Structures are given as structure tokens and as C-alpha cells.
Amino acid sequence: MTESGEKNPGIEAQRAKMSFLFREDVAPGLRLEMDLNKILFTSESEFQQIDVVETFFGKTLVTDGKTQSSQMDEFAYHESLVHPSMLRSALSGTPPKTVFIGGGGELATAREVLRHKSIERCVMVDIDGKVIEVCKKFLAEWGGETVTSDKRFELVVGDAHKWMMETQETFDVIIMDISDPIEAGPGIMLYTKEFYEHALTRLNPNGVFVTQSGTADAVPAKHQGAGETDTSCYGPINNTLRTVFDCVVPYSTNIPSFGGDWGFIMAFQAPAGCEDKALVEKEWKFPASTDVIDNLVEQQIEGGADKLGLYDGVSHMSMFALTKALRNLLKNDTRVMTRDNPVFMY
Amino acid sequence: MTESGEKNPGIEAQRAKMSFLFREDVAPGLRLEMDLNKILFTSESEFQQIDVVETFFGKTLVTDGKTQSSQMDEFAYHESLVHPSMLRSALSGTPPKTVFIGGGGELATAREVLRHKSIERCVMVDIDGKVIEVCKKFLAEWGGETVTSDKRFELVVGDAHKWMMETQETFDVIIMDISDPIEAGPGIMLYTKEFYEHALTRLNPNGVFVTQSGTADAVPAKHQGAGETDTSCYGPINNTLRTVFDCVVPYSTNIPSFGGDWGFIMAFQAPAGCEDKALVEKEWKFPASTDVIDNLVEQQIEGGADKLGLYDGVSHMSMFALTKALRNLLKNDTRVMTRDNPVFMY
Amino acid sequence: MTESGEKNPGIEAQRAKMSFLFREDVAPGLRLEMDLNKILFTSESEFQQIDVVETFFGKTLVTDGKTQSSQMDEFAYHESLVHPSMLRSALSGTPPKTVFIGGGGELATAREVLRHKSIERCVMVDIDGKVIEVCKKFLAEWGGETVTSDKRFELVVGDAHKWMMETQETFDVIIMDISDPIEAGPGIMLYTKEFYEHALTRLNPNGVFVTQSGTADAVPAKHQGAGETDTSCYGPINNTLRTVFDCVVPYSTNIPSFGGDWGFIMAFQAPAGCEDKALVEKEWKFPASTDVIDNLVEQQIEGGADKLGLYDGVSHMSMFALTKALRNLLKNDTRVMTRDNPVFMY
Amino acid sequence: MTESGEKNPGIEAQRAKMSFLFREDVAPGLRLEMDLNKILFTSESEFQQIDVVETFFGKTLVTDGKTQSSQMDEFAYHESLVHPSMLRSALSGTPPKTVFIGGGGELATAREVLRHKSIERCVMVDIDGKVIEVCKKFLAEWGGETVTSDKRFELVVGDAHKWMMETQETFDVIIMDISDPIEAGPGIMLYTKEFYEHALTRLNPNGVFVTQSGTADAVPAKHQGAGETDTSCYGPINNTLRTVFDCVVPYSTNIPSFGGDWGFIMAFQAPAGCEDKALVEKEWKFPASTDVIDNLVEQQIEGGADKLGLYDGVSHMSMFALTKALRNLLKNDTRVMTRDNPVFMY
């Protein structure tokens, strides 16, 4: 049967009653559900289910049912992942020339890296060539051809872990833009103490390592009682990096399409002879003035502050000043991730 | 961020955690929610929102958020709507030659009509030309080109109510394949006593009128207390037809993609001089043998019983034998639909 | 924060935006979602999660997340399960005196059995004493104290399979009111050829066996290609009973709170010397007149037809006349359930 | 039917398939859905629907379908609302003695106020006495009897707007803990320029006004094009306060049970003769050292820092340093709320 008549005045009320929806678990027992306007692409690669959809948050890449990044706030995720480490490196007196990206198939991480005037080489290793193709085609705003045709950029379709174990190259900044360590997932090795130890050997002096670190929502009750049932990996990654690096600085940014605050952790070595590593961390987190960061942005970024939507001196403080609730949550977490004792996120 | 690693062994578990979904209200407080694989088409016509999707039930036409018919069981809906009335007409001694279809944009109602060897003319009036185009393109199995290129078939894109009021033509069978009478909807006039009175004048002797009639789930508690809160239109259509026709026979078929049992009502005049109209109804509902129907199918349908997926002699009994619960529900409903006192379905 | 002000005129619109919900899978990829008004009871027994809730369908017993029966249509389920077999037994010349119920914890199956004037003994074996207590307390309308205090009724809290294997007793009617055979479930043995063979030895001459049989929605596409992926158990139970009994008669009833049509199958031996078992089945399914059933109801049921909400002569035809689509589905299913080769429902 | 057998080993898988759920709109087209364990209380007051449930976030008060506060993070909401203003007042040289709370029915806002050693009087005006009773009974941890029996606390059940218009009293801090300005809601007057002008007259010298301000998720695309379609009220409240107060300072905190970052805005007058109001704001937002705040906490709060779960010097920076994305969003919003031109939130 079909409708027969004039334009339905109650069409919006009707639309409200139905829905095409995208629903995603953000924690066991908590889901984000949003209107789904279009399914632009759906297929399986050798490695995962790949969907490109248009939702409440605009165009969105979804792999294996997890939002990877969305049009409305991908800038916030990718700027948060890239710029603090790049500028930290610059602040150390070494404007970064070489960057390794593990994962990063959307190309937006590379896009942000390539904004830095000092960059000479950016190599990205992602195992799923199909994701890259799909992003170039459907999510060109994320970087696309502009990134892949940049002469400073080298794309390797392959296993990031294997590539890192085999390379002799070293980098100023290493950026891990990979999926969370889930039980079923293959990326688990890239979150272990063993990998971080190796990554440190692939960093130049004054080099900086950074990884996305899953949800940073301060939900303390989830942590009461049992690490087993804790489903975030923010604490474990923080602890594991601390077994390897002198300075480890967790930070976070609100990414609405991820369902709340998202965690990142950067790690680097203290200057030779430094005795107060905590002070080094603190001076980075809370510089004497927000101008320190604003000036670095102006120096390093092609086009200056106008090119960035999220990051500047004040945002830096917002990102690095974790709330007491989140700090307590990290403090109370003692889990360390090793090859033999991985910690799985939900 | 994107996945980096080997084929995810837990991909199905992950898929289970997420979902692209289609959710539809079937009653106030009751919804059907199903996996949504693809959105094949989405647009608005002059009259309504039109979506073609692929769900649990296969390809599905959705207008203004309501499932119109789906690949898995459209045959059940369209055979139920068409064949009983056509065969009733044949049984009366007049194998039907002319049929009017109000609505029917998917073309599947016409497809079933055209299976009848006796058909010489089938005119279909649907207001939304875009629905027809979309169905021809995306739902060719419903009928498509095969129907529209049939010389016996005439398509009128226009207002079915207006067309019927203006035509001088009369028909052996009139089939109303239109949306439920919802408050916002324009089809409300096609469910009134006034329209039925006029339709009777457009029927040939021995002619049969049939209309889809909304949900026929026997949910008696919804009916306790107040007609106001009753959201089905099965009872009101039944009552309204009874104010006009001698014989009114409600029947139902299970249509899973509609969320349960679906109602249809056929109506016709008793033979001249007939004094026991209830007996006429009963003899039609429960023929002496299922062979009566099976033989009619064999005579009337090009290709015979093999061409039908739902309807035969035994199915006829299943359809016309309403449960006591449903009969009670109809019996207790006293609402009649007139131009001035329409009854709105949910 | 809390509201501060006058009665909110848009409260219903607001309510519509939120929801307490009960969502249940009815098939892989299809869910029923309904408003949840109250959670009356929630706990775990030794065997399963037990919830009593109030939803769109009224008060409802839910075990392990599956609706067992609901206030609005439990009468339809329990009358369908009980009366056809009881009356078949009566029609054979033996008004049933003794009945065994496997499962049946809600007590409503026993309630329907005890309506039959001829009943002298009804023994019910359900493993979960807590379900029975909960039903007595929260679902008294289902039977409750009235059933358990009836002198003809004996309650055994124990394993129905074990009890049947050990008893020397025989019965006029055996009614299996147990959960569907799901992979995780323990009831699987009660759906095997081996159990049916034993059950036959526990039936008196002219005895009738009946079991609930899961969904009977005619969804043929689910069956295309692979029995493996078929998630209904209606066909397998039908086939399995046919390896044991002379006459096997599947029937179905629309149970909205179960999400559509529900299957039942009754089985019995043909009269000694009978050569046309199909005819015996047919004569039962489609009696010469609906009066046959109506008269049996009047004779057998204390209080007569007024006491029943679903079952009578016309409903009998509705239930036993399966649509062609459903008959084809059963015909194409060849699976048989044995101890070594069980078939799991979703 | 009921289960019959041994403890179901797949019970958790089964539980995963079903769900009791609480679903709440957080924006038009975006919903938070969470497991619902219990409905502890459900009723309607004279003013609104009141539910107390137990969800993923623990015990939660829900009114008219909107989460008011939940066990897991109510401390973050109430500390954010109360302490910055109280300490600002103390920093101005006037440890606050008198506080007015508009709304606040959960009593947790008063709980935080009463932690301040300098408090002599806290008057709270909430229109819905039933909410207060329900919170005392079911959410005693929020404050309950401890608050209502505190001699410094006065409870007025009545209209906060009316009370403020009629009182002659003035306060050191005015805290507005009321629902968002939704179209249907009565609290709309409490968000207008006219109310803020009056509130300023009810503040003592050095007094501070603060109001919760709805979602502070930086979702810029919602703001592209049209203020009309913008559904947040953070910008409008900010703009409106600026038409009245010298200094207006928006801040935000991550409140997972509200679905992301939540906005608050405090407002106060600059010191007499001050020419650079922006500098006054900046010095408050980013004090020379986090010790400034930590010392104030230690001085003012009974029991010191140990009593607070969220607020301290570093959290202060996290809260007052808004990201560039959120600052841009506020900057681009020009809406002002007046009695004649209110702005409605979703």
C-alpha cells in the first residue's frame, strides 16, 4: 500500500515516530544512539567491516561498529592527537622533521602533521588499504588526495608493529592512531610495555611518543572493586608508558561523537641530568603563560592559528588539566599491559 | 583512528554490539526494531518521505516512516488483498473483467490483478508518481515494468478520491490499497461512509469492494474503556462498510514485516431477494470444501496455483476464520467513520 | 537540578522523547521494543533470571530475557496449548481424566486443564520453584492459589525429563509448556526423538501429546539456503514428532506479545486398523462443522464457552488452517531433533 | 511457558540479547541509552513526572524524562555548580554567609553550600515538594535529612521566581539549580534578562550569581547557519548575563550521565573603579597558581580537600579553560533571552 493524498502536514511527527538509527556501545550498558541519514558505503575488507555513514554528527567512518571519526568533531580528535606532541618536540629545541604514524587510515592525522612547516618526512603504516581508499573517496575533507600526493608523505600498507620492529629509522614524533585494545582486536601488541620499549629506541633525542588512549570519562564507580571489570584503557596505558618513559602526560578532549571525553597520552624522556621529572611534566602541562603555546602554533603551523579549530594556549590548559575525579581514577589504577598480560578494553 | 591488524576474529560479536537499525512504531508504546543493511534510496516527494531500505525483511518500501511492503512477505499482503475479492466475483458467475485500484503505487496489487485470465482492464490511481518511479527502479520484483507495460493496465497519477467522484465508469472489483487513516494523512476521506456509498455506485452487479484495514492483532486490553484510545481502524472500517453494503467480511493474514496480523475487509451486495445475508457471508467464509477455492484459483489464475505463494483453499479458511478474541474485539467496537466524524489510526 | 514551576503542559511530548523500555529479540536481527511502566520483581533463581514487569502488554513474566506470557494475551497462549488436545481426547471417546504438564510454572496451563469437568488428576513438574512462587504472588490472575489449592492438582518441583523417565504413571494428555530449545538451555532433551518415544509410552490409549513449538511466523526467506541458519524450531519439532506418532498436527495462534504467530503441535496415534492417517488428521483439523468443537467446549468446560476468550469452533479452524506459506515452510524443513543432533532455536 | 532445567550457562549471552533500558534525548537526533536495573519510584507530582531509577550510572533522579542527577557523577555536577562561586566570593574578601538556591530539590546543592564554614544561612526555594520528599527517601546520599535538619538551612516550597521578586533579603551567592529553558517548561522566566537584572539587586557587594547552563558540548555544526535551530542555551545565557553583569565567566565540567560536557556560568560585578573587566575575569579563570584555589578550599571547606571529589586548583583550570571550539561557539552566538524573546532549549 502507498500513501495517496496531499502533502502530509504531520510528516515531522511521523518521522519522529520512526527512525533509521546508528547505535554504538560506549561502555557495557551504555550506548549512544543517533539518527542515521545515509549509508554512503558498506563493505568488508580483509581485516574489518567498513561503513561510511551520515548521522547526527555528519559523515562518519565506522569500522567494526565503532565510530572512528566524524565530520563534526574529527578536527578535535586529530588536532588533539597531533599538535601537543609536535609542539613539545619544537619546544625542546627540535622542530620535528620526521614523524611516524601507526594506523591513521583516515589520513587526517597525517593532514595535521603536514601542517607543521618543519616536517620533511611523514611515514604512515596502516594495515588496511581499503580503509584508506574509502576515506580518500568518501571523506576527502579528512585529507585525502592532498595528503597522499604530498611529497613529504609516505604511505605503507602493512602491519605497523612489524614495520616498527624491522625499521632502522628513527623519528622525532611517533603517533599511534590505532583502535582501542579490544579482546578480539589485533592491535593489542601496540599497547604493550614491549612495544613501548621498542618505540623508545625509534625516537630521536627529544623525541615524543603519543597514543590515543580510549575514553577518559571520569566514571569512578566502574572502578570500584575490580580492575577486571574496568573497561577503560586510559589507566593501563598510562601505567605502562610510565614503566618505559621518564615523563608521561595524559590529557583529554571532549569528542561528542565518541560519547564524551577522550584520552591521549604523550611520553618523552627528561633532559639529560634532570632530577625532577614531575616538574618537567608540570611545566609542560601548565606553561607560565598560554602565550607559550600560541607562539609555538604561530611559528610551526603553516597559516598559523587560523588553521586550527581546537588547539591553542587556552585549549592546551583545558586538555592537560585533568579533573580531580579523573586524576583519582588514574591514580587508583595499577594495571600494566604486557605481551603476557594484556588488558582488554570493552 | 582506524584498525590496524589481522582479520578480527570477534567481528560478529562486535557487530552484535552496534547496529544500523530501522525502528517503526506499530502501536503507541510498541515498536518493531530490525537490522538495517542498506539505505537504497531516500528522498521526499511532493507528498511524503520515500525510503527504500534493506532490512531483516529484505528490500522494503517505507513512506513517512511506515513500512509499506517488504520483499519477504509482500506476496502475502498483495495476494490477500487481491485474490479473495477477485474469486468472489468469479464465484458469483462474473469472472472479473474490470478492476479499479486506489493507491497501489508499488504495482504489486496490479501484478496480482493481472494474473487473472478474465481481466480486460485494470486502472490504478495513485497520487504520488515518484513512489511509482522509485518502485519500478528499486523494487522491480514487485511488478515494475511488467505491470506498467501490460496493455490491460492504465496508470493515472492523481487523486483517487477525486477520480472516483468524477468517473462514470463502473468496475467488477474495487481495491483500496492506501495508507491507514492517520490524523495527518490525506487518505482519510477514502475510509468514510460517504466514500463507500459512492463506491457502491461504481460497482457492477456482483461487484466486490475490498480495502486493507490496518492491524488485526487481537489486543483486547487496548479496547477496554475507551474507543478514543483505541488505535486500530479494523473495527471502524468494518462498521462503516456495514452501513453501506449487504455483506461485509473481515479477514486477516499474518504479515511479519507489519508486526503481526493484518486486516482486510471485503464487501458486496447479497443476491437479489436474498433474505439471510449472514448465510451468504458464512458460505463465502467457510465453503463446503477447500476445493471450491482451489478450483477457482486453477480456473482464474494464469499458470494456476503454482503462481501463488499464499492463497489457496486452506489459506482461505485461515484468513476468514477470525479468532474469538478478534471477533469479540470487532463486536465491541461501535465506531463509524464519516466525513464529519473520522476515526484516526495511530 | 530539578524543575521549578507550574505543571508542564508539554509533559506528554517530553515523555515521548524519553523511555523506559523492554526490548526483546524475536529473531536474529528483529526485536520487539515496548514501553516499560514498572519492574515489579527482579531476581535470579537457581536456574534463571526472573523478572515480572508491566509493559505495553500489561503484567509480564520474563525469564532470561524472554517473554513467557503477558496479561493481555496469556489467555490466547494457554487456551491454545491446552484445549485442542483435551477436546481431541474427549472426541476420541475418552474425556481426559489425567494430565501431565511439563514446565508450566505460571500455573495458567494447569488453570485451563482444571476447567475440564472430566479431570481427576493434573500433575505438573517444573524445575524452578521460585518461578511458581513469583507467579503466585505477582501474577495471581494466571491461576495462583486457585490452582495450587485444587485437590486435583499435584505440583512437583523437579526435573520434568527425569520425572517422566522414572514414572510408571500414564496420562490421557501430556502437555509440554517449556522454553524453546535454545543452545544454552537445559530443556533441549525435552524436544528430542528419544523423549517423544518415551512420552508415547506414558500416554493412555487415545492419549494426546502437545508441545509449544516456538514462532510460526511464515518468514520463508530465512529458510532459503540453509537449515543451519534457520532459527525456528517449528519444522524440526514437527518432523521429529512424525518419526514417533501416527498423526501430527501443527497449528498456530497470533500471540502479539510473542511478536507474531506462535506454533503448537499435537500428536496422537491413529485408531487401531486405520489406514489413512492423513484423513484422521484432516478430519480433526477441519471438522464437518464448527459445531463439533463448540459442542465439545460446552460439554467439557465448567461454565461453558463463556469461560474461554480464544477457543471455539471458528477459532479452531483459524488455528489449524495454516497458510500455504507456512505449510511450504514446514514441508521444506527436513531437520529431526535427536539427542545426538539437537537443533537450536535462536 | 517457563524454563525447566539446570542453570543456564548462556544466561549472560541471553541477558545481552534483551534489555530493560532507559533512553533519553540529549539533542534532537542524539540519544543516550543505558541499562535499566530497577525502577525504584515512579509517580507524578502536581508539576512533573518523577522517577527514581537505577541505571548504568547508579541511582538516578529523572523528571519529565530528563536525568537530573545520578549517583555516579552527581558530585561533579553539584561541586561544579557551588564551589567556584562560593570561593570567588571568599576571594573577594567576603567569605559567603548567605546563599539563595533556586530549585535544588535533590538537596545536594545545599549539601555543598553547607560545607562552607562561613555559611550562616542557606535558603532554598523549589516548587515541587514531592521531589524533595522523594529525594530524601530514595537519594539520601544526595543530602537528605542531613541537609534539611541543618539549622542554617531554610526550605521554602514555592515559586523561586515569585519568591525572589518579593523578598527584601540580599545574598552573598545566588545559585540557580533549575531545569533547562524548554518550551514547555515554566522555568523560562528564570533565564531572562529581566530576572538577572532583579537578581543583581538581591546580591550583596562582592556577591556572585551562578546558573547551570545546559550542554556545553562543542558541536559547531549545529550552529552553522541558524541560531534558530541551535538547541543549546549556553550561548544565550552567557550573552544575557553579559547585558547585566560586569564579569561573566562560563565554565564546564564533564558529566557523563548528562551525555558529555555541561555548562555553568558565573557572573559578578567588577571592583569599584575597575577599568579592565576582562582582566578581572581572566585572573579568576587562570589564577597565578593552582595553590590559590587549593588554599581557598582548605580555608573554606569543613574537612578540607578530602571532602571534595571534583574541585581543586587543577580542576578549576580544567573547568575554566574552555576549548577554542567552545569559545568560538559562544562567540558566534548572539542570542539574548528576554521575557518577550525567550530562547528554548531542546
From TrEMBL, chains A, B, C, D:
> What family does the database annotate?
Belongs to the spermidine/spermine synthase family.
| Active site, UniProt feature | 177
- Native organism taxonomy: Eukaryota, Sar, Stramenopiles, Ochrophyta, Bacillariophyta
Query: Which superkingdom?
Result: Eukaryota
Q: Which residues form the PABS domain?
A: 18-269
* Annotated protein name in UniProt: thermospermine synthase
What is this enzyme's EC? 2.5.1.79
Catalytic activity reads: S-adenosyl 3-(methylsulfanyl)propylamine + spermidine = thermospermine + S-methyl-5'-thioadenosine + H(+)
A Pfam match is Spermine_synt_N
